[in-house]
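Example 3.2
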Amino acid sequence: MNKFYTDTDEEVKAVMDWARDNNHEIALSEVFAKGSEGGLDLARKVVNKAIEVNKNNPLYSLEVSIKEKIEKIAKNIYGADGVDFTEKAKEQISQFEKLGWNDLSICMAKTPLSLSDDANIKGRPRNFRITVREFKPSIGAGFLVALTGAVMTMPGLPKHGAYENMDVIDEKILGLF
């Protein structure tokens, strides 16, 4: 439950009690007021639940091929019909296999705006395929990042941040978009 400064103690207690009384796991998140420390309880519960759910039933085995791992993610998580790999991605997979990186986990980098790799396709798309255009290895972290669509990864930031065009003059905020 996200707690904001406008929430009363009575309101918070009512929601927390209702959740517990109805066997719903709940955590109070106070990141708005306390920053990251205000989200520690929620973070712990999410991590523990993820471990509990996936402990005996991982989505894929690390022993399967890179392509198979990506197919599992695309089909089972996003609902895609399949995955297409660009020539560059295929070449990289071949290199990764030669380097012994086949047993690494996969991190998909795609638009957060859609389950597809196309930010313009909203809702729960059907009858679509995902294209992996290239990979960015994160060997130290133990995974390969599959880049899809037009996704940009950090540091894909402009040379001049938007904050440079903002100011406060006579208690009026200027340049805020």
